[in-house]
Automatic annotation (TrEMBL):
Pfam families: Methyltransf_11
Descriptive protein name: SAM-dependent methyltransferase
Segments of skewed composition (Low complexity): 216-239
Recorded GO MF terms: S-adenosylmethionine-dependent methyltransferase activity
Annotated segments matching region Disordered: 210-245
Amino acid sequence: MGLYSEKLFPWLLDRALSHPRIEARRAALVGQAVGEVLEIGFGSGATLPFYDPAKVHRLTVIEPSEGMNRRAAARLAKAVLPVRAVTGAGERLPFGDAEFDTVVVCLTLCSVRDPAAVLREVRRVLKPGGCFLFLEHVLSGEPKRALWQRRLTPIQKLVGVGCHLDRDTAALVRAAGFEGVVSAAEEERAFGALAPLAPLVAGSVRQGFSGGGAGAASASGTGSGSAASASSYSSSSSAVGGGLP
Ligand SMILES: C[S@@+](CC[C@H](N)C(=O)[O-])C[C@H]1O[C@@H](n2cnc3c(N)ncnc32)[C@H](O)[C@@H]1O
Protein backbone atom coordinates (compact mmCIF):
# COMPACT_ATOMS: atom_id res chain seq x y z
CA MET A 1 0.00 0.00 0.00
CA GLY A 2 1.10 3.51 -0.75
CA LEU A 3 2.69 6.05 1.51
CA TYR A 4 -0.27 8.39 0.98
CA SER A 5 -3.09 5.94 1.70
CA GLU A 6 -1.41 4.22 4.62
CA LYS A 7 0.44 7.06 6.35
CA LEU A 8 -0.64 10.53 5.27
CA PHE A 9 -4.35 9.84 4.67
CA PRO A 10 -5.08 8.36 8.12
CA TRP A 11 -3.49 11.44 9.69
CA LEU A 12 -5.35 13.78 7.34
CA LEU A 13 -8.68 12.04 7.89
CA ASP A 14 -8.33 12.31 11.65
CA ARG A 15 -8.01 16.06 11.34
CA ALA A 16 -10.62 16.55 8.63
CA LEU A 17 -13.30 14.54 10.43
CA SER A 18 -12.74 15.87 13.92
CA HIS A 19 -15.09 18.82 13.27
CA PRO A 20 -17.38 19.34 16.30
CA ARG A 21 -20.47 18.88 14.14
CA ILE A 22 -19.23 15.51 12.93
CA GLU A 23 -18.29 14.55 16.48
CA ALA A 24 -21.81 15.41 17.68
CA ARG A 25 -23.28 13.16 14.99
CA ARG A 26 -20.90 10.33 15.82
CA ALA A 27 -21.87 10.61 19.48
CA ALA A 28 -25.61 10.53 18.68
CA LEU A 29 -25.19 7.51 16.42
CA VAL A 30 -22.87 5.35 18.47
CA GLY A 31 -24.65 6.20 21.72
CA GLN A 32 -27.54 4.01 20.49
CA ALA A 33 -25.40 0.86 20.23
CA VAL A 34 -26.24 -1.97 22.64
CA GLY A 35 -25.11 -5.51 23.42
CA GLU A 36 -22.66 -7.30 21.15
CA VAL A 37 -21.62 -4.56 18.70
CA LEU A 38 -19.75 -4.57 15.37
CA GLU A 39 -18.38 -1.45 13.70
CA ILE A 40 -17.36 -1.74 10.05
CA GLY A 41 -14.73 0.71 8.77
CA PHE A 42 -13.36 1.68 12.18
CA GLY A 43 -10.72 3.97 10.66
CA SER A 44 -8.59 5.63 13.30
CA GLY A 45 -11.15 4.84 15.99
CA ALA A 46 -12.85 8.24 16.22
CA THR A 47 -16.16 6.70 17.33
CA LEU A 48 -14.64 4.76 20.23
CA PRO A 49 -15.09 7.41 22.97
CA PHE A 50 -18.84 7.54 22.26
CA TYR A 51 -19.71 3.90 22.99
CA ASP A 52 -21.44 3.52 26.33
CA PRO A 53 -19.70 0.80 28.37
CA ALA A 54 -22.89 0.37 30.41
CA LYS A 55 -24.81 -0.68 27.27
CA VAL A 56 -22.17 -2.35 25.08
CA HIS A 57 -20.98 -5.79 26.26
CA ARG A 58 -18.26 -6.04 23.67
CA LEU A 59 -17.24 -4.04 20.63
CA THR A 60 -15.75 -5.75 17.56
CA VAL A 61 -14.20 -3.43 14.98
CA ILE A 62 -13.10 -4.29 11.46
CA GLU A 63 -10.92 -2.13 9.22
CA PRO A 64 -8.90 -3.11 6.11
CA SER A 65 -6.21 -0.39 6.25
CA GLU A 66 -3.09 -1.17 8.25
CA GLY A 67 -2.34 2.56 8.41
CA MET A 68 -5.74 3.23 9.99
CA ASN A 69 -5.26 0.31 12.36
CA ARG A 70 -1.93 1.74 13.47
CA ARG A 71 -3.58 5.09 14.25
CA ALA A 72 -6.47 3.36 16.01
CA ALA A 73 -4.08 1.46 18.31
CA ALA A 74 -3.55 4.48 20.59
CA ARG A 75 -7.29 4.94 21.07
CA LEU A 76 -7.84 1.20 21.54
CA ALA A 77 -5.21 1.16 24.29
CA LYS A 78 -7.42 3.56 26.28
CA ALA A 79 -10.70 1.73 25.64
CA VAL A 80 -13.00 1.47 28.64
CA LEU A 81 -14.93 -1.47 27.20
CA PRO A 82 -13.81 -4.83 25.79
CA VAL A 83 -12.77 -4.42 22.15
CA ARG A 84 -11.78 -7.02 19.56
CA ALA A 85 -10.00 -5.45 16.55
CA VAL A 86 -9.95 -7.39 13.27
CA THR A 87 -8.29 -6.52 9.96
CA GLY A 88 -10.65 -7.12 7.06
CA ALA A 89 -13.30 -5.72 4.74
CA GLY A 90 -17.03 -5.25 5.14
CA GLU A 91 -17.84 -7.14 1.94
CA ARG A 92 -16.73 -10.39 3.53
CA LEU A 93 -17.07 -10.32 7.27
CA PRO A 94 -15.19 -13.08 9.11
CA PHE A 95 -18.07 -13.60 11.56
CA GLY A 96 -20.88 -16.08 11.87
CA ASP A 97 -24.54 -15.45 11.11
CA ALA A 98 -26.57 -13.55 13.72
CA GLU A 99 -23.64 -12.72 16.02
CA PHE A 100 -24.38 -9.06 16.72
CA ASP A 101 -27.09 -7.00 18.39
CA THR A 102 -25.92 -3.80 16.71
CA VAL A 103 -23.87 -3.06 13.59
CA VAL A 104 -22.49 0.46 13.16
CA VAL A 105 -21.25 2.02 9.92
CA CYS A 106 -20.02 5.61 10.16
CA LEU A 107 -18.85 7.54 7.08
CA THR A 108 -17.70 4.32 5.44
CA LEU A 109 -20.24 3.20 2.82
CA CYS A 110 -18.91 6.08 0.70
CA SER A 111 -15.55 4.32 0.51
CA VAL A 112 -16.23 0.60 0.31
CA ARG A 113 -15.82 -1.14 -3.03
CA ASP A 114 -19.28 -2.75 -3.00
CA PRO A 115 -21.80 -1.11 -0.62
CA ALA A 116 -24.61 -3.54 -1.51
CA ALA A 117 -22.38 -6.48 -0.54
CA VAL A 118 -21.50 -4.79 2.75
CA LEU A 119 -25.20 -4.27 3.51
CA ARG A 120 -25.90 -7.96 2.76
CA GLU A 121 -23.18 -8.87 5.23
CA VAL A 122 -24.63 -6.47 7.81
CA ARG A 123 -27.96 -8.30 7.55
CA ARG A 124 -26.28 -11.69 7.78
CA VAL A 125 -24.34 -10.95 10.97
CA LEU A 126 -27.18 -9.15 12.75
CA LYS A 127 -29.32 -11.12 15.16
CA PRO A 128 -33.05 -11.20 14.38
CA GLY A 129 -34.34 -7.83 15.52
CA GLY A 130 -30.80 -6.46 15.67
CA CYS A 131 -30.14 -2.85 14.83
CA PHE A 132 -28.11 -1.31 12.01
CA LEU A 133 -26.94 2.24 12.75
CA PHE A 134 -25.50 4.37 9.99
CA LEU A 135 -24.24 7.87 9.34
CA GLU A 136 -23.13 8.69 5.82
CA HIS A 137 -22.55 11.64 3.53
CA VAL A 138 -24.57 11.20 0.38
CA LEU A 139 -25.54 12.57 -2.99
CA SER A 140 -27.50 15.79 -2.60
CA GLY A 141 -31.05 16.23 -3.73
CA GLU A 142 -30.19 19.68 -5.01
CA PRO A 143 -29.39 19.29 -8.72
CA LYS A 144 -26.60 21.89 -8.75
CA ARG A 145 -24.88 20.44 -5.71
CA ALA A 146 -25.34 16.90 -7.03
CA LEU A 147 -23.75 17.91 -10.32
CA TRP A 148 -20.70 19.21 -8.48
CA GLN A 149 -20.56 16.13 -6.30
CA ARG A 150 -20.53 13.98 -9.45
CA ARG A 151 -17.87 16.15 -11.05
CA LEU A 152 -15.67 16.11 -7.96
CA THR A 153 -16.00 12.40 -7.21
CA PRO A 154 -13.09 11.26 -9.44
CA ILE A 155 -10.79 13.66 -7.57
CA GLN A 156 -12.32 12.78 -4.20
CA LYS A 157 -11.70 9.07 -4.89
CA LEU A 158 -7.99 9.85 -5.22
CA VAL A 159 -7.72 12.28 -2.33
CA GLY A 160 -10.11 10.34 -0.08
CA VAL A 161 -8.80 6.86 -0.95
CA GLY A 162 -11.93 5.55 -2.63
CA CYS A 163 -14.44 8.01 -1.12
CA HIS A 164 -17.42 8.83 -3.39
CA LEU A 165 -19.35 12.09 -2.99
CA ASP A 166 -22.18 10.83 -5.16
CA ARG A 167 -23.47 7.65 -3.51
CA ASP A 168 -27.21 7.32 -2.91
CA THR A 169 -26.68 5.45 0.32
CA ALA A 170 -30.20 5.90 1.71
CA ALA A 171 -31.55 4.16 -1.39
CA LEU A 172 -29.02 1.35 -0.95
CA VAL A 173 -30.12 0.86 2.66
CA ARG A 174 -33.75 0.80 1.62
CA ALA A 175 -32.99 -1.74 -1.09
CA ALA A 176 -31.07 -3.99 1.30
CA GLY A 177 -34.27 -5.25 2.92
CA PHE A 178 -34.07 -4.06 6.49
CA GLU A 179 -37.26 -3.56 8.42
CA GLY A 180 -38.61 -0.62 10.22
CA VAL A 181 -37.16 2.62 9.85
CA VAL A 182 -36.00 5.45 11.07
CA SER A 183 -36.12 8.80 10.88
CA ALA A 184 -34.08 11.59 10.37
CA ALA A 185 -31.69 13.10 8.13
CA GLU A 186 -31.17 16.60 7.25
CA GLU A 187 -29.64 18.73 4.62
CA GLU A 188 -26.41 19.76 6.26
CA ARG A 189 -25.41 23.20 5.12
CA ALA A 190 -21.88 23.76 4.02
CA PHE A 191 -19.37 23.88 6.78
CA GLY A 192 -15.76 24.67 6.10
CA ALA A 193 -13.65 22.30 4.08
CA LEU A 194 -16.21 19.54 4.64
CA ALA A 195 -18.86 21.24 2.51
CA PRO A 196 -18.73 18.65 -0.31
CA LEU A 197 -19.55 15.96 2.27
CA ALA A 198 -23.00 17.43 2.87
CA PRO A 199 -25.71 16.33 3.05
CA LEU A 200 -25.53 13.69 5.71
CA VAL A 201 -28.02 10.93 6.25
CA ALA A 202 -28.35 8.97 9.47
CA GLY A 203 -30.68 6.26 10.57
CA SER A 204 -31.30 3.04 12.39
CA VAL A 205 -33.06 0.09 10.82
CA ARG A 206 -33.69 -3.41 12.06
CA GLN A 207 -32.94 -6.87 10.82
CA GLY A 208 -36.25 -8.64 10.45
CA PHE A 209 -37.17 -11.64 12.56
CA SER A 210 -37.65 -13.68 9.39
CA GLY A 211 -33.98 -13.57 8.51
CA GLY A 212 -32.94 -12.67 4.98
CA GLY A 213 -36.38 -11.86 3.62
CA ALA A 214 -37.16 -8.83 1.53
CA GLY A 215 -38.34 -6.42 4.17
CA ALA A 216 -39.06 -2.82 3.46
CA ALA A 217 -36.72 -0.29 4.86
CA SER A 218 -36.42 3.37 4.60
CA ALA A 219 -34.23 6.02 5.89
CA SER A 220 -35.72 9.40 5.82
CA GLY A 221 -33.83 12.37 4.73
CA THR A 222 -33.22 15.11 2.34
CA GLY A 223 -29.87 13.64 1.58
CA SER A 224 -29.33 11.23 -1.22
CA GLY A 225 -33.03 10.87 -1.50
CA SER A 226 -33.45 14.51 -2.41
CA ALA A 227 -36.42 16.59 -1.49
CA ALA A 228 -38.37 14.79 -4.18
CA SER A 229 -37.69 11.26 -3.07
CA ALA A 230 -37.67 12.12 0.61
CA SER A 231 -41.40 11.81 0.53
CA SER A 232 -41.01 8.14 -0.25
CA TYR A 233 -39.06 7.66 2.98
CA SER A 234 -41.74 6.66 5.37
CA SER A 235 -41.47 6.33 9.07
CA SER A 236 -42.76 3.09 10.39
CA SER A 237 -44.22 1.92 13.63
CA SER A 238 -41.11 -0.09 14.28
CA ALA A 239 -38.92 2.94 14.07
CA VAL A 240 -36.17 2.65 16.56
CA GLY A 241 -35.13 6.18 16.89
CA GLY A 242 -31.83 7.67 16.05
CA GLY A 243 -31.06 10.21 13.47
CA LEU A 244 -29.22 13.41 13.48
CA PRO A 245 -28.86 15.45 16.60
C1 LIG B 1 -13.91 8.11 6.09
S1 LIG B 1 -13.26 6.74 6.95
C2 LIG B 1 -14.32 6.69 8.38
C3 LIG B 1 -13.69 6.07 9.56
C4 LIG B 1 -14.50 6.10 10.86
N1 LIG B 1 -15.68 5.27 10.76
C5 LIG B 1 -14.84 7.51 11.27
O1 LIG B 1 -16.00 7.80 11.56
O2 LIG B 1 -13.92 8.32 11.34
C6 LIG B 1 -13.73 5.34 6.00
C7 LIG B 1 -13.08 4.07 6.46
O3 LIG B 1 -13.60 2.97 5.71
C8 LIG B 1 -12.55 2.06 5.50
N2 LIG B 1 -12.88 1.15 4.41
C9 LIG B 1 -12.61 1.29 3.08
N3 LIG B 1 -13.04 0.22 2.41
C10 LIG B 1 -13.59 -0.63 3.31
C11 LIG B 1 -14.20 -1.91 3.22
N4 LIG B 1 -14.33 -2.52 2.06
N5 LIG B 1 -14.64 -2.49 4.35
C12 LIG B 1 -14.52 -1.85 5.55
N6 LIG B 1 -13.95 -0.63 5.69
C13 LIG B 1 -13.49 -0.03 4.59
C14 LIG B 1 -11.37 2.98 5.22
O4 LIG B 1 -10.12 2.29 5.33
C15 LIG B 1 -11.58 4.06 6.24
O5 LIG B 1 -10.94 3.75 7.46
